[in-house]
Amino acid sequence: MGDLYALDFDGVLCDSCGESSLSAVKAAKIRWPGLFDGVDSAMEDWIVDQMHVVRPVVETGYENVLLVRLLLEIRMPTIRKSSVGIILMQKFHFSVFSEIKGNHLLPRGGDGLTIDRILDNWSKLKPVIMEEWDENRESLIELFGKVRDEWIEKGLSSWIGANRFYPGVPDALKFASSRIYIVTTKQARFADALLRELAGVTIPSHRIYGLGTGPKVEVLKQLQSKEENKGLTLHFVEDRLATLKNVIKVPELDGWNLYLGDWGYNTQKEREEAATIPRIQLLELSDFSRKLK
User: Which InterPro entries is this protein grouped with (predicted)?
Assistant: First the structure.
């Protein structure tokens, strides 16, 4: 008998928001060069700062590239070459007015799209902008991976340095008595590189389930069905509430203990909701490290 921990990577083990935001800006400049003409370093810094705020909505890395463009269009509506604003107002009734004062409506500016509205509506916004911008998921994934590969090739140390493991996590992984699997939407080669180069941890490749290995609910099914895992107590640690809610919908996965890492990419609103769901345990970073050991 023993324990099996299936661990998300970004937001549970590693804070990669700095690296992914910088990579997304590079990818967006390649994908839409005309829109980024004249965008100075100060604007890029603002976008990277805001990417830390909207990061909780990201499920798969390529979405960072879409968010970079959306943030640019919010900040500089004059460069907008699409009818996204009109579509969003029609579909989601985003008001361009922020408040009524006397008999006058005070303008919000732009089309009423704000950071908070991205946080609240991303799952609905994403398909709208993908269609309006005529984008393809696979091509954006390929572009995002290519940008990272080139960065690593030209300067591995600077790419590594743009990431950080959460305090205590490397040692917890090194000395874990539990069986560890990585279950992530990050491309496996990047997770493996960071584990080796930054955390000093080697996890066998067959225990890293990265982008392309299927939805996380399917990966969890695979893990619990493996003969070598029979009899182990199953734990899944994730920082996205939506992912944990998807697991709860699958009766076959009722045997998993579910944890939301409160140090990861989630919002106070999501943590409060998680606290009301009996299957989900809110987990602090110090408790997580102790559990692995």
Answer: HAD-like_sf (IPR036412)
